[in-house]
Design a protein that fits this description.
single chain, 284 residues, alpha/beta, 42% helix, two-stranded antiparallel sheet, 10 helices, Spore Coat Polysaccharide Biosynthesis Protein SpsA, Chain A
Length: 284
Amino acid sequence: MNQNNIKLSIIIPHYRTPEVLTLCLDAILKDVKNISYEIIVSDGETDSGILDEFKNKYPGIIFIENKKNVGFARLANAGIGRAKGEYIFEINADIIFTNGKDILDLIEYLEKNDNVGIVAPRLFNPDGSVQQTYFRNYTLPTILARRTFLGKTRLGKKILDKFMYKDVNMSGSFEPDWVLGAAMMMASKRFAKIGGKFDERFFMYFEDADLCRRFKIAGFKIIYFPFTSFVHKHARASDRGKGIFDIFTNNLTRIHIASYLNYLIKWHIEIPLKMIYSNFKNKM
């Protein structure tokens, strides 16, 4: 990897899945060609002995060590803070590259469209089925439909279908409200215009929805680009269990709810109040 004039920084937040991370890194090193790039793994709480093995096996990769679980946003930001690339590809450790050309196509899309903040590829499950990775903005009914018995009702299913754009006939690329943070390509300079990092008030979950919303507020588009694709060995741990009772038994569900409350406060209370205050102040 050429460390001079780096075109692309691949940022991988990682938490205690060394076998999955190995698959991810091996696929990148095998498939990514014809571009200067760096790989930055921001690691949370991995045993130091295992991390040393990674450093010895992959001497050209930058590993950032965090002694405790600091959450996804902080892990990602630690890697982004070290990035030197003109473009940033933030991916989960369970993303598997299958075609090196796809990453070049994502960069080319951003190069040709300077009004785009994030371009996201299609993601496949290991069995070949397509993952749902584009959504409308969250609302309270959406959360209730996803986390309670409401989702089993006709109304709840209608709410979720709209949330997942199932009411729209999709063909080709399009502009959703937000895309899943498992694979996001961004231009570094455009990212810098909205602060250049994820909002760390979101320990895990909703940081992707928040980031997309920030880009849109700044006048940039979010694009789902299905002509590029990767495999995502995805397991939604927060979705397993007994609906609303998971609030009491599943820690990831509690984190998900807490992150939504942060999202709700930020986008439906704090920001509107700031806008009202700003308008009032300007009229004085």
